């Protein structure tokens, strides 16, 4: 059997140190830049639609307040208590997902049931919580399997079932892009956990034709693919947002047009405060701002992945790795869509895009990442080979 590999240290001893201030600083800076960008991009639409140029910023700040409560909770609560809460978080997220199918509670937009109603004209998108819940569930289960000494008793079949259930519910909500993204995150955790990929191959082989079938049977999804292949066509329909986003990015030049000065291009992008907000940042700050964003994102990824790879606890390492991957990969996918490198999807930009569900869950995951960074190995005299590999897991 081929050896399995993981990317974190498997050390039994650990202690706690101070918070990684560099990692914390990158998170706060990303959040601050997101609020700043939302302020730049949403004023025109906020004034026209709601009579308040600060409408979206105010709502984002309110949701951020709830998010920072969860941020502090996940940052300071002991990991053993978070492990005990995993089942509760998973069940809670599943209940919220099922609520999207109940009339009167759910909100239907363009045939999709992705949101549930909340007081104060707020909504919540359960699929955002599913991302975090799936990571916690898989990390917890892989950690338990690692403690089983008898190879005959080891199995990851429940993880495959959980991945099918989570992604299936999201697909049923007609949130195709999020369903695909959740599937990719699940497969990534299977890989880094050291589980034998023979368990995931049948799922992947089934998922690929299923995804193709879902695309071809839905005219709108198929049109998006066609529009991506032919970017210069359908300029007034499918590619309208994409074409105007590219114009906004080009209009920013090297140094950008500044705040509130000549930002005419972003006003032609429908609901720019959502999935295409990166185009607004690029027009205001130019290519310098684009480079700054990616440097900050890479730095966040470096600090986050470093702490997860060095973490001695498997649950903490895997869950932290998954949370960092969600934020980083989602950011990359979103910016690639805005730049026309991927077909248009519903994947938003963490910290930046308007969306209470996204900012709340993102800050909760960041709190977990910070908590994980406080854990370090005691023995500093560990060979380099031990740092990057562990004993192979013999899953059935």
Briefly, what is this?
The protein contains 13 helices and five strands.
Write a structural description:
There is one protein chain. With 396 residues, this protein is mainly alpha-helical. 63% of the residues lie in helices and 5% in strands. The strands form two sheets. The protein has a three-stranded antiparallel β-sheet with strand order 2-3-4, covered by helices on one side. A two-stranded antiparallel sheet has the order 1-5. Strand 2 and strand 3 form a beta hairpin. Helix 3 (79-99) crosses helix 4, helix 4 (126-146) runs parallel beside helix 12 and helix 6 (176-193) packs antiparallel against helix 11 (314-338). The termini are close together. Residues 1-6, 8-13 and 377-396 have low confidence and may be disordered.
Present the secondary structure layout.
Blueprint lengths: L14 E2 L4 H30 L4 H22 L2 H21 L6 E4 L2 E7 L3 E3 L1 H21 L10 H16 L3 H18 L7 H17 L1 H11 L10 H12 L25 H33 L4 H25 L17 H18 L1 E2 L7 H5 L8
Antiparallel strand pairs: 1-5, 2-3, 3-4
Annotation keywords:
single chain, 396 residues, mainly alpha, 3-stranded antiparallel sheet, two-stranded antiparallel ribbon, 13 helices, 5 strands, 63% helix, disordered C terminus
List the quaternary state of the chains.
single chain
- Structural class by SSE content: mainly alpha
Q: Unreliable segments (pLDDT under 50, ≥5 consecutive)?
A: 1-6, 8-13, 377-396
Specify the overall morphology.
Answer: globular
Gap from first CA to last CA: 11 Å
């Amino acid at each position: 059997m081929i050896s399995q590999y993981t990317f974190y240290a498997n050390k039994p001893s650990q202690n706690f140190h101070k918070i990684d201030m560099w990692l914390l600083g990158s998170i706060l800076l990303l959040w601050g830049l997101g609020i700043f960008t939302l302020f730049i991009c949403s004023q025109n639409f906020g004034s026209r639609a709601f009579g308040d140029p600060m409408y979206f910023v105010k709502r984002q700040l309110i949701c951020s307040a709830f998010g920072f409560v969860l941020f502090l909770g996940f940052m300071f609560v002991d990991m053993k208590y978070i492990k005990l809460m995993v089942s509760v978080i998973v069940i809670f997220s599943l209940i919220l997902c099922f609520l999207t199918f109940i009339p009167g509670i759910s909100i239907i937009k363009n045939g999709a049931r992705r949101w549930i109603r909340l007081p104060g004209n707020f909504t919540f998108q359960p699929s955002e919580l599913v991302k975090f819940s799936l990571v916690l569930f898989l990390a917890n289960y892989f950690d338990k399997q690692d403690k089983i000494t008898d190879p005959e008793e080891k199995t990851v079949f429940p993880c495959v079932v959980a991945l099918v259930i989570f992604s299936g519910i999201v697909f049923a909500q007609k949130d195709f892009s999020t369903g695909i993204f959740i599937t990719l995150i699940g497969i990534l955790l299977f890989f880094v956990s050291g589980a034998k990929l023979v368990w995931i191959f049948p799922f992947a082989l089934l998922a690929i034709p299923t995804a193709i079938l879902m695309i071809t049977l839905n005219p709108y999804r198929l049109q998006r693919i066609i529009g991506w292949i032919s970017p210069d066509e359908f300029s007034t329909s499918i590619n309208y947002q994409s074409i105007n986003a590219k114009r906004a990015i080009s209009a920013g030049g090297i140094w950008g047009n500044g705040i509130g000065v000549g930002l005419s291009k972003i006003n032609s992008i429908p609901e720019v405060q959502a999935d295409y907000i990166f185009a607004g940042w690029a027009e205001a700050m130019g290519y310098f701002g684009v480079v700054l964003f990616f440097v900050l994102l890479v730095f966040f990824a470096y600090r986050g992945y470093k702490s997860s790879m060095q973490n001695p606890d498997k649950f903490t390492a895997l869950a932290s790795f998954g949370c960092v991957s969600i934020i980083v990969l989602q950011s990359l996918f979103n910016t690639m869509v805005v730049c026309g490198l991927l077909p248009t999807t519903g994947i938003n930009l963490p910290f930046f895009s308007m969306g209470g569900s996204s900012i709340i869950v993102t800050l909760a995951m960041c709190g977990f990442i910070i908590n994980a960074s406080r854990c370090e190995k005691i023995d500093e005299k560990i060979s380099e080979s031990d740092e990057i590999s562990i004993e192979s897991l013999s899953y059935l």
